[in-house]
Amino acid sequence: MPTYVATGRDTTGQSRRERVNAASPNDARTLLRERGLFIQDLREERGFNLDLKDLQTALTTVSVKDKAVFSRQFAALVNAGVGLVRGLGVLAEECPNPKLKQAVQDVNAEVQQGTSLSDSMRKHPHCFDNLYVSLIQAGEVGGVLDEVLNRLAKLLEDLNRLQNQIRSALTYPVTVGILAVVIFIAMTVFLLPTFAEIFEQFDADLPVFTQIMLGISDFLRQPLNWVLAAAVIIAAGFLYRRYYATPVGRRTMDRFFLKMPLFGDLIQKTATARFCRTFGALSRSGVPILTALEIVRDTAGNQVISDAVEESRKEIQTGGMISLALQKHQVFPIMAIQMISIGEETGELDQMLMKVADFYEDEVEQAVKALTSVIEPLMIIFLGGMVGSILISMYLPMFRIMEVVQ
User: Fold this and answer.
1) pTM higher than 0.70 for the full model?
2) Once rounded to an integer, what is the mean pLDDT over residues 144-166?
3) Taking a C-beta distance cutoff of 8 angstroms, is the pair 357, 277 a contact?
4) How large is the average pLDDT for residues 369-394?
5) What would be the CATH architecture of the domain defined by 61-149?
6) Domain residues of the chain, as ranges?
7) Radius of gyration of the chain measured on its C-alpha atoms
8) Are 170 and 267 in contact (CB under 8 A)?
9) Cα of 137 vs its chain's centroid, Å
10) Which residue has the higher pLDDT, 262 or 387?
11) Which CATH number fits domain 150-405: 3.40.50.2300, 1.20.81.30, 2.160.10.10, 2.10.60.10?
12) How much is the mean pLDDT over the chain?
């Protein structure tokens, strides 16, 4: 029989923590109520037994696409008049993602106990972030939960499409880069040593470039060097993560990312589209401006952009305009700032934000195509250069050997 751990308050208002053995969570709640405990949180106590199902749930991540599909299905059920408890039960049964499935089951149990949907979801931040919970809360308060869920689904679908576009732009160069490195290492380790033995038989002076390539070959054929190289890479990655975790490091690196050749423009347009889409969805759903800006700040994904959003939030508190604050930081395109300014002046900020998001999402799509067309020939040159350097290092000594033979 499983053991449940509950936290709550007794009849005197004091906080208490209790353990109880029960066949199910409902039985545990019944027993704890009989003890005079008003339950605030109830969880099953886990031992040290390895459960493959729990391990799979822990290792699974909830993607933007998973949340978009869940939101779209949930909206359809709510719009059809299906009750929350029954709808969440149906969604939990059909959910293919084990982590999201467990979260929906827990949310359903909380809703059955009288907890609001947004408060129940807030207990599962790995599945439902602050943006998601805030929109759900706005839908509950305004009585338009189905509309908010549809907006959430549209928002998440747009974000997923943006992610796929960026991923598609990176897939080709990463694949070609890995292929080039593998070919280079294979030819350096297995092919060059064979030619080195031939060169030694003729006792000819080798060109400097060939000597360098043979030195690289000797280095790569030593297992200890691979261990050292792996240690250096791991240490560099660890130091980078530590530096990026600091406020100064994160701000410095994120500013560098925005100014990177080729990719900087794409990152800026993606951030603009995401900011406008998220902010517009929050505003349209009735979330207060200051709260919406706080959520957008936390979900920006770039510290420089987060700083600009936070500055605009402070401007709003003192009676200023969002567009003026964003303009000071120079992280968003001028056209986007001007359109936001027009939206503020006309009182149609949410509609203008959606138009800006649509525009820059199209811009991202065009930028991805342009970036791919530029990267493809560069990667071909890179691959050819890697292979060509080995071939040149092998053929250059041939001329010296011909001189020795003559």
Assistant:
1) no
2) 83
3) yes
4) 84
5) Up-down Bundle (1.20)
6) 3-44, 61-149, 150-405
7) 29
8) no
9) 24
10) 387
11) 1.20.81.30
12) 83
